[in-house]
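Supplementary Methods. Inverse-folding protocol.

Structures were first reduced to a discrete structure-token string of length 195. This string, shown here, constituted the complete conditioning input.
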């Protein structure tokens, strides 16, 4: 849906995406040819991220040190206060605090943007997004259900594995794939200003 929205004129992209997600979640999710995932309210959390991105691109966000740290503390406390909420409760218990966490981290970026560790974590973030669920599911099955380890110990074991696999994926898949795609695509035309 996000890729399809890029075909729309720029002023209509956000609204096209919002309408598509709402329509699929409310009107079409019960259809047998649509994945049940699209009936899950979690897809509305994606719109929070899109909204933050659009607002940041148009207006920026105020920077600071104190208020972002307070917002991080409040968001993390709210996230930890709820144990696997579902439905609309999830949106308010996990979705909104997560969005506020992203806003707080963006506000801190001028203070930590040159940090090499955070830069690397940012580089690996898409791979982390793709891999973390697989690693956590396997960890839960093998370590918690089969071996009886506690969930926090399982998480402590899974986090470095996620980081390692994210680094490998970024270095061996993302960077190489990106170079190949750039070779396949035609070179951008030089603008009059750059010429």
């Amino acid at each position: 849906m996000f890729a399809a929205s890029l075909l729309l004129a720029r002023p209509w992209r956000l609204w096209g995406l919002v309408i598509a997600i709402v329509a699929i979640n409310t009107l079409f999710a019960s259809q047998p040819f649509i994945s049940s995932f699209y009936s899950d309210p979690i897809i509305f959390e994606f719109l929070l991220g899109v909204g933050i991105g659009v607002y940041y691109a148009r207006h920026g966000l105020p920077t600071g040190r104190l208020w972002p740290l307070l917002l991080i503390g409040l968001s993390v406390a709210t996230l930890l206060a709820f144990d696997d909420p579902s439905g609309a409760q999830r949106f308010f218990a996990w979705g909104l605090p997560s969005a506020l966490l992203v806003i707080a981290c963006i506000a801190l970026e001028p203070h930590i943007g040159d940090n090499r560790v955070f830069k690397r974590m940012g580089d690996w973030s898409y791979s982390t997004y793709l891999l973390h669920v697989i690693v956590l599911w396997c960890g839960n099955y093998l370590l918690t259900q089969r071996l009886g380890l506690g969930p926090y110990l399982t998480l402590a074991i899974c986090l470095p594995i996620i980081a390692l696999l994210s680094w490998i994926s970024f270095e061996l898949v993302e960077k190489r794939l990106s170079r190949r795609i750039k070779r396949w695509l035609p070179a951008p035309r030089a603008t009059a200003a750059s010429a």
